[in-house]
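Exercise 7b. Backbone tokens:
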């Protein structure tokens, strides 16, 4: 199958023989056998920039964390955030991990913008996948695409002007 899963175990136990074979007996000391099925499926996890954020209408920015194959267990990935935007003032804080559920191949990180009154340029949020904290050991971080950047657009403006004043100067 194409699902990443841990090694599975099959135990076969002999419980009797077909009628009509009285000369065949089962040795109870060795009436079972164990077989391990090793999985040969692997998957890699990467991140991509999705929707840019915008303070107008409070449009959340998004990242998509993708796994190349589904796993039989949840994959929990640690993330770090950096950039010119600040958690708590430009966007709502997000958890330090994202979970790709068992059977799924992606999860979304939502960056909810905060509509402040500060006049500032477009800012960035950089998300980096740092490690896989739990899940199948055959799921690893990709060698590329472990960092993605989205922009958060500001909606504030200001006007700067000179005030006219009447004054007289004597030379």
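Sequence design result:
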């Amino acid at each position: 199958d194409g699902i990443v899963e841990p090694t599975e175990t099959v135990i076969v136990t002999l419980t009797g023989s077909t009628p009509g074979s009285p000369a065949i007996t089962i040795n109870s000391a060795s009436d079972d056998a164990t077989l391990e099925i090793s999985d040969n499926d692997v998957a890699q996890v990467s991140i991509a920039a999705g929707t840019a954020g915008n303070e107008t209408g409070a449009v959340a920015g998004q990242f998509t964390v993708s796994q190349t194959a589904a796993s039989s267990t949840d994959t929990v990935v640690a993330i770090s955030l950096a950039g010119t935007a600040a958690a708590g003032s430009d966007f709502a804080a997000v958890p330090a991990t994202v979970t790709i559920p068992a059977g799924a191949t992606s999860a979304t990180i939502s960056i909810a913008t905060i509509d402040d009154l500060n006049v500032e340029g477009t800012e960035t949020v950089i998300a980096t996948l740092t490690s896989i904290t739990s899940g199948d050991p055959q799921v690893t971080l990709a060698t590329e695409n472990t960092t993605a950047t989205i922009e958060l657009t500001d909606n504030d403006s200001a006007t700067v002007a000179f005030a006219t004043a009447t004054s007289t100067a004597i030379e």
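Instructor comment: The two ends are 93 Å apart (CA to CA). The mean pLDDT is 88.
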